[in-house]
Amino acid sequence: MGDRLDEIMILAKSRDVADRERLLIRLVDMCNGRPDDLRTPRVQDLLSQVFFYLVFQAEHDIRMRLAENIASSDWAPSGLINILAFDHIEIARPIIARSPILEDPDLIRIMVEATLEHQIEVARRRDISVSVVEAILKAGRPEVLKALAENETARVSHDHLAELIQRSKDIEGLRSPLAEHVGLNAELASYLYTWVGVALRKSLAS
Description:
The protein has 206 residues and is mainly α. The chain folds into two domains: 1-101; 103-206, no CATH class. It has 14 helices and no strands. It has helices at 2-12, 17-33, 41-55, 60-70, 78-85, 89-98, 104-113, 116-124, 130-139, 142-150, 158-167, 175-179, 186-193, 198-205. It is elongated. It starts with a helix and ends with a helix.
């Protein structure tokens, strides 16, 4: 650990872009190796300060690699994760998809404030809750609704599915994923049947 800290201190004093990238990766590796030591408020505050300082100076490609490396980590500071979740979509995508740090209010905030591409990633995230599903339905953007209809792990209730089917009357892209949805029952299938094409009617009838 002493050698690693010495290396980190040397890299921290460098202004070279490659050294900053190595510094971020060394910090992530060190944190991944000792996650149980990183959950106290004092350590989280210190980590936040260090990572914020580095991330705000980091190039796009470095932030992208950082996001990929910490996307699944449960030790990462919440503030850092939320900043990366609003970054360019290439950086935000793994964070939105996998970060256990993101909670429902964070995901709903992305639905309200972020770009269409970010919202689509929220709709694709595994096991999104009822609250997030309702935020997606409230926003009502066709591309995001399609991503939700394709997400079979989302907590979509009977009423949510009925609302998606109603909207598919005007949004053709919803019809095919809804026809294959695991929550579709005979009652809902009969509603969908009235405005789909011949191929999907055959599938629904069967």
